[in-house]
Write a structure and sequence with these properties.
Blueprint: E1 6-17, H1 41-53, E2 58-63, H2 73-79, H3 85-99, E3 102-106, H4 112-119, E4 124-126, H5 146-158, E5 163-169, H6 175-192, E6 195-202, H7 219-232, E7 238-240, H8 248-251, E8 258-262, H9 279-286, E9 291-293, H10 299-304, H11 312-326
Helix pairs in contact: 1-3, 5-6, 6-7
Length: 328
């Protein structure tokens, strides 16, 4: 039974690099290897500190997939003192914990050992499935092969990592493909119980990409997909929409119970043209629903102890902080 509460988390978005081995036809996040392609450690630390001042509880680390496979990138990452972007992410996750924020990493495709390593310093992790259909937009993106992404999601389940995934709507799939994608996610969760939330995200065309003139989905079709998710997914998985990308005030009533991470400090680097709504705006979107702040690791996984040994005290403190905020 889906909760009547509407939840969200307060985060900082930290793109450690925008270099990526994939070449998705709709993406503007990816950049070529060049000076400044790795976020400086001092900028990471300053952003974390600012996030803590603004009451953020989550450090969202993201970067392009397998950037080391791009010519010249290793030279730039080694200038930071690290051998790989994953080593850099591990170290910056420790910085986040020291600052009082819980790391959540979206790193693209990782193997079992890499997931296991990052699990040591992350409260939760994520990977968008996007779609189980082989689409033209992904033809130059080896990491977007559905089987590869499903295998990683299964590894996360084996490792008991609280996990976020989702669909990207309107990139060449249809409703039957979305149904298949949701069935795959449901099956994985029934086996491992690790899917916290599923994002139903609409594609937004970007100027300068191969899909800049691609048609966008109507809110009615997005609503239909949200309702389909509610029918297929187990009731303990939250259904999330990004409140900055579409008409959230309309879609919330379609079966949404989470608004994801929003930031009072950083922009949405994947969709920079769409600013995050302020917390007061989220309250208006919630209408008669109870808006509740949450951590990036859901309470049921806290109760199960699905987090690194070193995060227990921080999770307890942050839970108290958001509870005190909700009482005001």
């Amino acid at each position: 039974m889906q909760s009547s509460d509407l939840t969200y988390s307060r985060n900082v978005f930290l793109p450690l690099t925008d270099v990526c081995h994939n070449r998705c036809a709709y993406c503007i996040f990816r950049e070529s290897v060049k000076d400044g392609c790795v976020m400086k450690e001092e900028d990471v630390v300053n952003t974390l500190a600012k996030g803590a001042l603004f009451g953020c509880t989550e450090a969202l680390f993201t970067f392009g997939e397998r950037p080391e496979q791009e010519a010249g990138f290793l030279e730039h990452i080694k200038k930071t003192g690290y051998d790989s972007v994953l080593d850099y992410c591990y170290s910056m996750s420790l910085k986040a914990i020291e600052t009082g924020l819980l790391p959540h990493t979206n790193a693209g495709i990782l193997d079992y050992n890499e997931l296991s390593k990052l699990k040591e310093v992350n409260a939760s992790m994520g990977l968008m499935l996007e779609t189980t259909k082989n689409i033209a937009a992904h033809k130059n993106s080896p990491g977007k092969k559905p089987a590869v992404r499903i295998d990683m999601m299964e590894d996360a389940g084996k490792l008991r990592i609280p996990f976020t995934t989702g669909l990207l709507l309107g990139i060449g799939e249809d409703m039957s493909d979305r149904e298949e994608s949701l069935e795959v996610i449901s099956s994985l969760h029934k086996r491992y119980g690790h899917i916290q939330e599923v994002i139903i995200q609409n594609f937004c065309p970007k100027p300068g990409t191969g899909m800049e003139k691609w048609p966008v989905l109507s809110t009615d079709e997005i609503c239909e997909t949200i309702r389909l998710a509610g029918e297929i997914l187990p009731g303990d998985i939250s259904i999330q929409i990004p409140p900055n990308l579409t008409d959230a005030s309309y879609l919330i009533d379609c079966g949404v119970n989470d608004l994801g991470g929003v930031s009072p400090v950083t922009i949405d680097y994947v969709n920079p043209e769409h600013p995050w709504p302020a917390i007061d705006e989220l309250k208006k979107l919630a209408k008669n629903r109870v808006l509740k702040e949450r951590l990036c690791i859901y309470q049921k996984y806290i109760d199960k102890g699905w987090y690194p040994n070193g995060l227990g005290h921080l999770i307890e403190r942050l839970n108290k902080d958001i509870h005190n905020r909700s009482d005001k």
